[in-house]
Write a structure and sequence with these properties.
Rossmann fold; 38% helix; 347 residues; 2 domains; 12 helices; two-stranded parallel sheet; nine-stranded mixed beta sheet
Length: 347
């Protein structure tokens, strides 16, 4: 019988969202604290395959059940999504009661994968890609872990330092001063994913919504706007499979122009062996020329030659690591995991 690591599960619940988000996400903060202290919730998370052992999976399943009309969760989450004032701790207590009374509601869905496909990261990618592609008229994009492929359309989003009523305008603070986001023409957009989603599929739409935070109404409105606008956007090609299985195919298809390989919060879900293989392959491609890479990942993801503690004072920040053409990987900067701010390294 496999022994479940409940201490590891507890740490994961504890670190699931950045401290800077506690105040604006009182319901999810309270819910994560209750899940962290509940044995049933700990056992559920500890039982998930290690590549998906993320509290966001449990949160997404609960939200998905609510969206599908669960008699208790449905009305509660609907109030949260609409901004109706709720007692966050009491709401979290109710969710935990539902979880305890029918654990199978969640346990039978634990084979799913979190698929946020967070468009806010396009604001980050615009800044980094504009830097890497400086002076080039055309580039190709290859995204590893593309989900529904939304961030392959990073050039479809405007970016503002101030909140906008336009759902397709991303809000991102440039901590170190205004960053250039003028992009070259994107010639080809290729994604790689073992379980890609389709924005035209209603079930996939529902799961994408479930993976969003119900308190973050702007993100939900933005996904609705993307689903509506998607049919008019440029076509993408998605290669079904893992990076190891399809990266060579993707690079072969894009070899006619300078290609940038991107990944955002994907390596965290790979096994150490898969992660090491991908980083070696991507960085070797950059060293060989006509390729650059961008990794926006947790600092818990080890990348050879890159220190992981340079932003220890900003708990929850994600690290931006690039490999320029003919060069080794370097730290480009830091950011909020969903693109709320970006800071370019001055080193």
């Amino acid at each position: 019988m496999t022994t479940l690591d409940l201490d590891d599960a507890r740490r994961r619940y504890e670190k699931a969202i950045a401290p800077e988000d506690f105040e604006r996400l009182p319901f999810y903060t309270a819910l994560l604290h209750r899940l962290r202290d509940d044995r049933t919730a700990l056992e559920l998370l500890a039982s998930v395959r290690v590549e998906q052992r993320n509290p966001m999976l449990v949160l997404a399943i609960l939200h998905w059940l609510a969206l599908r009309g669960h008699p208790v969760l449905g009305p509660l989450y609907d109030d949260v999504r609409r901004g109706v004032p709720v007692d966050a701790d009491e709401a979290a207590r109710v969710v935990l009661v539902v979880l305890r009374e029918d654990t199978a509601l969640v346990s039978r869905e634990l084979g799913r994968s979190t698929q946020t496909n967070e468009p806010g990261r396009s604001a980050l990618l615009q800044a980094v890609i504009a830097d890497l592609a400086r002076g080039r008229a055309r580039v190709n994009l290859v995204e590893v872990g593309c989900s529904a492929g939304i961030n392959l359309h990073l050039d479809r989003f405007a970016v503002s330092a101030d909140p906008s009523t336009d759902p397709l305008t991303l809000t991102c603070q440039d901590v170190t001063g205004p960053l250039e986001r003028t992009l070259p023409t994107i010639a080809r957009r290729v994604g790689i994913d073992p379980r890609p989603l389709q924005l035209s599929d209603q079930d996939d739409q529902l799961w994408l919504k479930a993976c969003l935070w119900p308190e973050d109404r702007h993100r939900l409105e933005r996904l609705d706007a993307i689903i509506e606008a998607w049919p008019a956007w440029s076509p993408i090609e998605v290669l079904r499979g893992t990076a190891r299985e399809r990266l060579a195919d993707a690079l072969q298809q894009t070899s006619d122009d300078f290609t940038i390989i991107v990944n955002t919060w994907v390596l965290f879900y790979l096994s150490p062996e898969e992660r090491a293989w991908f980083l070696t392959a991507a960085h070797d491609a950059a060293r060989a020329g006509n390729v650059a890479t961008v990794s926006i990942e947790s600092p818990l993801v080890d990348i050879a030659g890159i220190a992981s503690d340079q932003r220890a004072h900003e708990a929850g920040a994600s690290r931006i690591v690039v490999a320029r053409e003919f060069a080794d990987p370097e730290l480009w900067g830091w950011c909020h995991p969903h693109g709320r701010w970006i800071e370019k390294s001055t080193a």
